[in-house]
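Researcher: Structure for this, please.
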Amino acid sequence: MMKQQLSIYYQRLKSLVSAAGVTMIPAALLFLLTPFMASAAHAQSSWTANDDDALLFDLRSGKYRLGDGVRGYQTDKGICADFADVIMAFDVPIRLDKKSRRATGWVFAERETLIVERDSDTVQKVNSTKKLSPGEIYDTPEGWCVDVKTLSNWFDIELRPDLSNALLIVETERKLPFQKALERKERAAKIRPRRNFDLSSLPQSTEPYKFWRTPSVDAVVSAGGLRDKRSGQELDVRYELFASGEVGKASFDARLSSDDKGVPESLRLRAYRTDPKGELLGPLKATHVAVGDVSTFSTPLVSQSAAGRGAIITNRPVDRPDNFDRTSFRGELPAGWDAELYRNGQLLAFAENRSDGRYEFIDVPLLYGQNRFEVVLYGPQGQIRRDSKSVPVGLDSIPPRKTYYWAGGQEAGKDLISFNALENLQQAGWRGGFGVERGLNAKTSVAASLFSLQLDGQRRNYIEGSVRRAVGPTLVELSASSAFDQGTAFRAQLLGELGNSFITAETIWAQGGFRSDRIEQNVNGKHSLSVDHNFKLGSKILPFHIDAQYETRTDGRSSLDVTSRASLNLRRFSLTGELKWEKQFTDIGSIPDRIEARLLANGRIAGVRLRGEATYRLAPEKRFERVNFTGEWRAGDRADWRAELGYDVGLDRGRAALGIIRRFDKFSLTASAEAATDGSVAAGLNLAFSFGPDPRNGKFRFSNNKLANSGQALAIVYRDKNRDGKRQPDEELVENVELTAGQSTALTPTDAGGRSIIDNLQPFRPVLIGIDAGSLPDPYVQPAIPGVVITPRPGIAATVELPLVSAGEVEGTLMREGGAILAGVGLELLDVEGRVTHSTQSEFDGFFLFEGVPYGAYQLRIQALSAQAIEVTPVLNIRAMVDDDNQVAKLGAVVAQSGAVMANLGGVPTGAPGGAPEP
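Model: Predicted structure, C-alpha cell format:
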C-alpha cells in the first residue's frame, strides 16, 4: 500500500512541477522516489495465472528431449516457463529458494554465475546487475514463471516456443554441457548390442551379378633409401595392387606385387562365386566355387591347407573350419601391414609382413564351446581392420542328415602367373582330393576323403576316414588313414569341458613309413595334451593355457615341448606372457634344454597406443633374443605419429624409427626415418589409396578406405508419402540422416541427395542396413522398416532404399477383469510381419504409450514374462491403425483376461484398426 501511495504521490509531484514551470527538482528527492516507483510498477500486473492459459511443453534441443516436460503459461506479454522445471531439465546447479525469494548458482560454467533477488527485483549475471522489468517473472501456483525471452538472456541461448506442437525449442551456436552429455550417452548406446533380428525375416536386397563390373582397386606404393653397413646402399621402389570386381557373372580378384626394384614379381588371379545360402550350380547346392589362385582343405592325418593355382568347389558353410578341433586363418597382408590373432580376447599369435603378401595362422586350436576369433590388421598409415569369426564346437557341428562335400585340385606353392616368386618346395606340385561329411544324428557324424599329393617330388595317394561322437560334455573323434604305397596312421582326438577348464587331448600313431603333410618323415608318434582355465583374481579374469607335446621318431630320437601362456586384460592394457620349454632325447643322451620366455603387450597409456614384443632365452644361456616396441599417438584429427624401438641380439643391432602418418579423404601418406646403432640409416615414403566406381554417379572415387577388400553399400533415404515402399520421382530425399550397418553406425550421414556410402562391410556376411532413428530431428518422422538385409561382395556397392514415413502414437489403459489396474506390465507393438517394433510398460495408473510409431497397422501384445507373472495370455486381439486420420490411436481400456480372448472396453472395437468397425 505504501509503495502504491508513493507512486501516486510521485506522479502528482511531476505534474505539479511541470504545471508550475519548474525545470529542476531536488535530485535527492527523485533518487529516493524512483526505486519505489520501479518496484511499484513491477508489482502491478493485470494478468494472473489461470487454467485456461496453462501450457505443458516438451523441451527439445535438436533431436534430444530434455527433462520430463516444462510447465508454463500464455501471459498478456508472451510465454513464460516454470523456472524450477527449466533448472531440472537443463540440470544446472541453481538453487531456487521460494522462502527467501532468491535463486543462486551458475548456468553452464562456474564463471557464468546467476543471482536473482525478487525482493529487490534485481538479477546479477556474472558481474552485470540489472533491474527486472514488469512481466519478466510471474508468481504462479507452481512457483516462478519466467518469460522465455528473459530465460534466453539468462542462459545465453534462444528459447523458441512452438505452440502448435507444444514444444519449447533450444537454439544455440555453442555446444552446451547437456548436449555433450546427451551425445556421449547416444554414442554409448550405439555400441551396445541392438535388438537381435532374424535376418531372414527382414526385407532382403540382392545385387545381381553382371557380365562386367569395373573393379575397385587398393594400391600401396612405397619408396625408400637404405645405407646399410652389411649390404651397402640401396634404393627400393615397391608397389602392390589388389583389385575386386565382376566378370562373366562371377566375382574376381587380382593381386599384382613387385620386388624391391619395382619389377613385377607375382600376379594372383581368382574367379569365384560365393553364396552362403548354398544355391550355386543347381543340384550341387554349392556355397563356394573358385578357379585360379585357391586354398585347399585340410584333414586330420593327410592334407594341410595350401595355396596355389587350381580350382575348388564345396557346399560347406562359408565360415565352417576344416577340422572340428582346429582352424586356419589366411588372408591378404599388404606391404607394411602386420596382424594379430585373438581367441576369446586372448592374444595368440602375431604375424609380420612377408614377401608373398599373405598372413597365415595355421592349425589354430579350438576349444569346446564358443570360440570367438579376431584377426586385427595394423597398417603403416595407422589403419586398423578387424575380422571377427565365431567357431562353435559342440553337438551341432554337423546337422543330422546333412551332407557336406568338397573337391579340388591345385599346383601348390605357385601363383597363377608367377614371375620369380619363391615356392614352398615341400608342398610343390599338383595335388587334389575329394571329401564328404555326414551327420548321422545329433551326436554322431562320419567323414571320408581321397587324396593325391606330391611330397619332395614323389606322388603319394591316400584314403582317410573318421567318426565323431559326442559323449557328455566332450567330443571324441577317431581317424585312420592308409597310403596306397606304404604305411598307415591312426589318430584319437578329444575336446571337452570340465567346470571352467577346457581339455584337448590328441594321440597319433604312424607305422610302415607313413608320411604326409601332417606327419613328417620318420615320425611314428605325436601325443599332446592341453588345458585352458580361467582364474579369477578379484574382479579380473586371468586366462591360462598350458600344453605339452611329445613326439617320437623311428631313429630313436624324441622331443618334448611344453608351452604355457597367461593373459591379463587390464583397464587399458592387454598382456600375454608365454614360456616355452623344449627338450630333446637321443640314443647317446639328451641335448641341453632350450627355455624361452616371450611377452606380448598391447594397450594405451596417456593417449599413446603401445604394442610390444620381447623374447628372452633362459637356457642354455641367458640373453635377450629380440625386443621391439611400437608407439602411436595422435597428431591431430587426421595425423598420427609412429615410433619404433628394437634390438636384435643375432645382428647385435639396435634400431629406432620415427614416422608420421597423414590421412586425407582420398589417400594416406606416411613418411619415416630409421637409424641403427651400427651406423645404418634409412628413410621411406609410403602412399596408400583406393579407387573404384562411385555408385552415386558412375564416375570414379578415391578413398583411404580399402574398397577392394571389403563390401560397400549405397543407401538412399526418402520420405515415402504414399507408404508403398517404392521411391517415386516426387518423393523428397532426406539429408543428414545417420545409418546403421549391423551393430555399428555409418560415419557419413546422407548428403543433399539423401545418399550415403557405407564402406568396410564384411564380404559374404549378411548385414542389416538401416536408419538410426536417433539421428532424426523430428520424432514424428520414423523409419518405415527396420532396414534392408544385404550380403556384401568385395569391391561391389549394393544399393538399398530406406523409406521414412510420418509417425504417431498408440495409447491405452491396461487393466484386469473387474477394473483392477495393471501397472508395470511390459507391452509390445507388432507390425504386419509379426516383428516387435516398439516396447513400453504400463504406468502406475495402467496407462501405456508407444511414441514414434510409423504409420501402419499394428497388433498389441503383452511381453511373455509379464504375461506369465500376472497369469494372462500374452496374445491380444487388439489392433491399431496409425495414419493421417488417426495420428494418435486411442485403444481405450484394454482388459486382460486369463483365457485366450482379450476384450476392449470403451475404445477401439476388438480387432478393428484405429477405431474403424470391422466389416
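Researcher: Any notable elements?
Model: The longest strand covers residues 797-816. Confidence is low (pLDDT under 50) at residues 1-44, 188-195, 900-919.
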